[in-house]
Amino acid sequence: MRATYICSNRIITHLIMNMLNRILTSIFCATIAIATVAQTETPDSIEAKELDEVVVEAQNQRTDAKLSTYTPTGKQKSSAQNAIDLLRQLAIPQININLVDNAVTTQTGQNVAIFINYLPASAEEIEGLFTADVRRVEYLDFPTDPRFQGNEHVVNFIMQKYEYGGYTKATVSENFLVGKLSSRASVYSKFAYKRMTYDLYAGASNHNINHSGTSIIGNYNLLNPDGSPMHIKRNELFENSHFKYNQYPVTLRAIYDSDKTQIANTVGFNFDKSPTAETSGSLIYIPGNGNDYSYNRAEPYTSRYLAWQGNYYFILPRNFHLSVTPSMNYGHTNYSYSYATSQPGTSEILNQSKENAFQFKGSVTLYKLITNRQNAFFRAYFGSTSNDVNYYGTSPYANDFSDTYAGATLGYNFATQKWNLNIDAALQWEHNEINSESVTEVYPLINFSAGFSPSQKHSLRAYFHFGANYPGASNKTPNILQQNELMYYTGNPNLGLSRQITFNLSYNWMPSNKFSASAFAQYFGEYNLFVPVYQHYLDGTALLRTYTDDGDYNRTQIGMSFNYKLLGGALQLVASPSISFYRMTGLFDISRSPFICNASATYYLGNFYFQASYQTRNLTVQGNRGVIYKDRDFYQILAGWSRANWNIRVSAMNLFRSDWLCATNILSTPLYSETRFVDGNNFHRRLNLSVTYTFGYGKKVQRGNEVGEQSNASSAIMK
Questions:
Q1: Residue of 640, 588, 461 whose CA lies nearest to 78
Q2: 401: closest CA among 439, 435, 360?
């Protein structure tokens, strides 16, 4: 049996080997035949064609439900002198940059916080940004990242990182045709070694100018000695002025950065002084005795303050993240106000004040990544501002102000590839104390935002905010100070907070690198807001301005923003038209619907760049002042040259405008109305020369995230 089995096995193996040999031989023969046919002169059924050159263009802008990302081109980076300038070159459709003061806001006017590599930066800090190291710029609404510290709207610069080395950047800017001196200079130095980075900033801002003052046409409804009404028109016409002011900030920052830890500490000192702040002019009363008088006003001040800020971020086990942001600052200010007229029977008004201000605030955020689609956070925050103000002279007073707030926020985020939903709710406590009088408020804050993005070319976002506006210390001052011979002013310690609602809807479209657009609509309402009111004082021979809670404020804005590139990106056209509808009720019954538009054209030619910009007149209704504010239209052209580490630019603003008018403020109440004509340099013709030079040292240079001038605590001095 065993022999038979072995024999059968050999026969089967032999048959299988023969079959494999035949199969392999057939495959080999077929391969030879195919190769032979391929080498003959017989053409293929599909004719061979030479392909055209294929150009792959990188996507420089994209949007999704969470954020919009912009990658600046080499031309944009080389022509920009600082971070704000680069934002203007990028023309991000969700933001607006004011041509006059370079303020960065949303298209509807909300503040946009600037961050560099997830660290907060002031306007002075980003002046020294080396734009060549910017990899991309992100715009976010209501970001959940704890490093953004709860800011509602954020621009974040992502910078290229280096291992070690350093650089120094010098910036000089001088204005011509506006006065004897109007200059700003700063030096940034950065040095990085392994995980440590050190920044040093020193700046100087010096000005010696004229033509800055205010003319006031005031209408006073007073009382005669017998109680009958008496109307006086008081024209205070500005004619001459002289202002000198100087600032010298110095700041040092140290940053430790690792894979799971980021620690930054900033210490800054600023000396700010205006030794000369004088205005003079004529004083006319209607009806009057036919005599015109003159007036002189002086408001010199000196301020010194020291500030410290910390930013600590840790990635913890189990997908927890911790962000801690404490800060403190101390400031001392000497402020003097004097006013005198040539009118017989009047005496000089002199109000001198000294203030010591101390502020501490901070927040702690614990962030938890639940899944790849869900995260949540808990934030606790606290702040306290103390102002010790002493008045001397005509109206001597001593006041101690204390504003303290604390709150807790709980938030949740759900995100998919197309959807991003955020909701957070906070309970905030505020305690305001003036001398022995105090007011305590507890109120909720709610934010909800939603984003939908079907592709990287489209995104739709909406957000809702419910909050409150709390009056500042100067609005609640109980002191009575004299402003002129007919007007006194004070605050109201019993002012309450007003409720606020904001609803915003926006659509972003980025079909290609050549074009992007954004359409938006927003409603903002503030209810039971505090406004100025006037009442008879000193038996009706003068008026007293104070504040009260009255009326509602409504603003609806609709607009669009466009960015279009031509000639391969060498020419860029930008426009942002919008219309606003203001409605104010109560004591101030105001309705306005202004149209505004910003537009610019930028052209790049080799190492040269050129830009023309125009900004229409802005009209706003300022709710808490009850004022209709109107400024001027603004236009400028600039030409610059940039190569290697140099950037030299000449700008011309409002070349055909010889007057000095900046803005008009209109106020109307039953007892008092006024029109203020504010003169200054902002809208007068001006030439500007600005130069930046950057040189690096070391093998691998880390640039960006520069440190800058620190901000002071808010002042409680009533002006």
A1: 640
A2: 435
Quote the tokens at residue 632. Answer: 């001027």
Q: What is the DSSP letter of 168?
A: E
Nearest Cα residue to 578 out of 599, 561, 601, 555: 561
Q: What angle do CA 342, 346, 347 make, to 5 degrees?
A: 100
Are 104 and 457 spatial neighbours (Cβ–Cβ below 8 Å)? no
d(CA 5, CA 522): 92
Cα→Cα distances 284→281, 290, 674, Å = 10, 9, 14
Gap between the Cα atoms of 477 and 206, Å rounded:
33
Task: Look at residues 67, 88, 68 and name the one whose alpha carbon lies nearest to residue 76.
Answer: 88
CB of 453 closer than 8 Å to CB of 427: no
Biggest CA pair distance of the chain = 148
Q: Which two tokens stand for residue 401?
A: 């102000």
Q: What is the pLDDT of residues 42-97, one digit of tens each?
A: 344 445 455 454 444 567 899 999 999 999 999 999 999 999 999 999 999 999 99
Contact 572, 563 (CB under 8 A): yes
For residue 126, which of 73, 76, 84, 173 has the smallest C-alpha distance?
A: 84
pLDDT digits (tens, 9 = 90+) for 276-316: 999 999 999 998 877 889 999 999 999 999 999 999 999 99
The CB density around residue 155, as the number of other CB atoms within 10 Å, is 25
248 beta partners: 271
Residue 111 DSSP label:
B
Tokens, residue 352: 């001198």
**Which tokens belong to 394?**
């005509």
pLDDT at 400 over 90: no
Residue 45 is given by DSSP the state: S
Return the H-helix or E-strand segment holding 26: helix 2-38
Rounded distance, CA 555 to CA 596, Å? Answer: 14
Q: How far apart are CA 215 and CA 212, in angstroms?
A: 10
> Do 712 and 270 touch, CB atoms closer than 8 A?
yes
**Within 10 A of 316 (CB to CB), how many other CB atoms are there?**
12
Distance, in Å, from the CA atom of 375 to the CA atom of 373, rounded to the nearest integer, reads: 7
